[in-house]
Amino acid sequence: MNDREIVELFLKRSETAIRETESKYGRYLEAVAMRILGDESDAAEVVSDTCLAAWNAIPPHEPENLAAFLGKLARQTAIKRWRKRGAQKRGGETALALEELGECVPSRESPEREVEGRELREAVGAFVSALPDTERRVFLCRYWHLDPINDICRRFGFSQSRVKSMLARTRKKLRKHLLEEGIIDEG
Question: CA quadruple 65, 100, 141, 82: dihedral positive or negative?
Fold first, then answer.
């Protein structure tokens, strides 16, 4: 079944949409969750929660790219689950990647308005889109897919020091971009 047909099932509120989504995208969603959580049972629950989130989001939202839409929902769901685990269990690639990116992005501790969140998403999106291809792909592997540094090194054929310095330079550029856009303060 193609994506358009699956979205149509969601729009018609047919429970078949859930089965078809799990059948077509279950392994992908589980892989997304495993990168963040590192636990098979948690990842399986994320797949179910992602399908429920899609059920609740379609309609009114009608995604043009179902795989990207589901991947985003799975990431959000897995990160929420990871945060709920508690500070004492945090570690590994997810904590490290989010901590690295935290140097550039304002804290989420105080309530942010919808407008500020949208401005941040647009500024980061514009920044990432303007990056050279390799730099963009490495950045997305690390901070969107939460890939470990070693996996990125193997994928691109780069040394660990090259990947780390590329990511550090990109984060520095992102911070500068967000400062110039007025999204974050110098502090």
Answer: negative
